[in-house]
Amino acid sequence: MEWISPVSTLLGAGIGVGATLPADRNRWRRESAESETATRRQLYAEYTAALSRVRTALHEAARTADGPGPGSAEHAREVRARFLAPGAYELRHQLAITAPPEVVAAARSAFIGVTADSEAFERLEAENDATVAELRRVMRRDLGVD
Q1: Which residues have C-beta within 8 Å of that of residue 121, sequence separation ≥ 6?
Q2: H helices then E strands: how many in the chain?
Q3: How far apart are CA 54 and CA 48, in angstroms?
Q4: Residue ranges of the domains in the chain?
Q5: In this predicted model, what pLDDT tens digit does every residue of 26-38 receive, in sequence order?
Q6: 84-130 per-position pLDDT tens digit
Q7: Which residues contact 1 (CB under 8 A, 6 or more apart)?
Q8: What is the pLDDT of residues 51-87, one digit of tens each?
Q9: How far apart are CA 45 and CA 103, in angstroms?
Q10: Distances 146 to 15, 61, 115, 138 between C-alpha atoms, Å
């Protein structure tokens, strides 16, 4: 009869551990998912803000009267520098690693929709706005935001 006490203790410990492990695992999964969502939310906000800065910079480059003329090598360098400065290109690569394929595709469309050619920029401005709006819609759906 001396074996009943140790067996009861072991059985109780096994039940306690067995009940705690699934709860801990569920909590870890929930916290991990929340962390991933927060990371994507931050990246999405940074990317859309960078696209906005790119659009503004290119708009300014297209409108600058005192700078180098459109078509010149100097103008092309200025436009390229303005295009790369906001960091959208780098953020797009981060999105490719962390976001689902639908978001990556929408991010690429929004990025390519930005153009440095002043005439094309004016024509595509509304289309670019629409691609960025679609990108935001896809990102919000991925994050579960209505």
Answers
A1: 58, 59, 62, 115
A2: 5, 0
A3: 10
A4: 39-143
A5: 888 888 888 888 9
A6: 777 887 888 888 888 888 888 888 888 776 555 556 555 566 677 77
A7: none
A8: 888 888 877 777 765 666 666 777 777 777 777 777 8
A9: 13
A10: 42, 36, 30, 11
